[in-house]
Amino acid sequence: MTAVATRRTRTRESSATGGWHAISPLVIAVLAAGAAVLVYQIFIRTGLGQTIDSASMRGGDINHPQVNEVLSRTLNATQLVVLGIVCLIAVVVGVLRRRFDLSIGAALLVVAANVAVQQLKAHLDRPDLDGTGMPNSFPSGHTAAAASVAFVLIMAFPRALRGAMGLLGAAYVAIVAVATVWAEWHRPSDTIAALLIVLAFGALIMWVIRLRRTGPRASITPARVATLPLGLVGAISAAACLFGLASVAVSERVMPDLVSSRFAFLTGVAGIMAAVAGTFYFWVRLTAGDPLPEQGGKTR
Question: Which domain covers residue 42, as residue numbers?
């Protein structure tokens, strides 16, 4: 009787775990999309939000021609040709691993996320509440392109490499995102929203992939080589960003010149770093829990 009860308990626990495993990508997709909407409402639709956002962008204040040239070349490297090459690599890797669902999913992720970001930037309204008269740049196409490139490579490569790919991808995307703000191409909210949109599309695609596969699944706990540093950077950066936002808000509304323009820029950088670390943390976890097919008694 005890053995039967134990088996039933384990079956119920396995069923509950499997249910959460199947639904968790959808939950993350909804939360990421909701967070992107919240960023838009705070930093685009309110005067204080626009003022803080623009101050963070202008605080970088670089005018050195050679620096601008390097930034321009780096940022332009995330254009359509690179996206096409990465899609091709992801498809080839997926085919070699006999994971055609990942090949299709990777291509859909790049196309859907980047098309959505470009459409939003073209059609979203930005009222002039901070008096700058700047056109809408929300969300950032460069950041979305860089993030989708990193996401599909993490998604397509074997599970053993995904932790290292996650760290490299996060570093690359952080550089691109901060560079767009430093060059005054985008405000911090533009880059943060782009990251959230890419995560939302990626999680939605991963949800569909999990629904298709009912076989054995990999452990949902990825290598700590990726999750531990991403979690630490995300927590520290989020705390720094919240403190910075409060300080800049007080400086703009209550005590002028309380903080410098460089402090405002660093606050934006902290927010970007928190968004990069957070989105990659969840993406590495989602891809680590990807169901795996059995072939000859082994999994890939």
Answer: 23-292
